[in-house]
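pasting for ref
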Amino acid sequence: MADTTIEAASSPATTQTDDHNQQHQQRAHRHAPLPPALDLYGIDNLLSDEERLVRDTVRDFVRERVLPIIGEHFEAGTFPKALIPEVAQLGLLGMHIQGYGCAGMSAVAYGLACQELEYGDSGLRSFVSVQGSLAMFPISAFGSEEQKQRWLPRMAKGEVIGCFGLTEPDHGSDPSGMETRARRDGDSYILNGTKMWITNGGIADLAVVWAKAEDGIRGFLVERGTPGFTTSDVHHKLSLRASITSELHFEDCRIPAENMLPNVRGLRGPLSCLDEARYGIAWGANGAARACYEAALDYAKSRTQFDRPIGGFQLTQQKLVNMATELVKAQLLALQLGRLKDQGMAHPVQVSLAKRNNVREALHTAREARSVLGANGVTLEYPISRHMNNLESVYTYEGTDDIHTLIVGQAITGLNAFS
């Protein structure tokens, strides 16, 4: 038996096993190159060449055209309207819609564009999101062929700006309680009511308005200049200052019956639009978070206190690590949601989960980043407080954090906590 054991130990098969184990041990002691601080999980490698091209194109645009001017617009409370033709030329308006002059890009590509736009400012991403997901999408999904042909090509070119009228002064989280009414009168509808907190409202050429008609909630296309349709902008905002927020007023506003979206009835219409917008927000919030993290990281490595960079102190490193970790998690969450959406498998609950998590963590990142910069963090010399203020609105619009909590809660328990 002893001879057999010795012989087996020196057999070719055993020698190969030993070699394999030795190679495995050597590999175990080797490490991959240190990952970059802005891509700790190699997420860039999970993107296709086309997706990276979209991201990098929008990233370059934001760095070259948006960042040099956005602080001034935020301080002045103005929207950079001069950028609209450039945004349209890049193909970003309705970029996830097929046909009618739209780019027809994937959901992931659209998400990456939203991420880079919000790296610049939430107001710019909101403009693109409202135009594509809240104004163009319902026309594409629920409109007649005539409506699609008339509006979508011009909206993709930025020649027609749209807005989305759902929220009302007394009905935010519960749109079923809306008071705006549409009464049929011959070959027209007469609209009466008010919509509130409407992005792009003051510059919109076309409003997609949801109102209660005799047969349920319907969507209507209302053109600027229609008698009885007026807008008024909201002023004195401390958030989304580089964005136009308005009220829409309808007083015996008569519109042709053919301006009704024919292919949807009930809350399914506006809620499906909101899911499109929430998807873009889930990505966009990561752009704001990354901007804050980058600013805090750069500052921590250059700012010296007690004769050393503050990045060398344990508490500062803890803050930076928390920011980096949550950013990685949020990016992976958004990417998986985008992959599901491109496969036709995304569910509104998944959208709510991603919107809730990513905005919540982006807001926390902004606050942590501000603490790293101290007093400098509250100035427009750095982007952090601008993003932090903007994210307070993003935290609320397209479904508050509480509403998304209840959506996910109902999904996992089967119990409705809304009523």
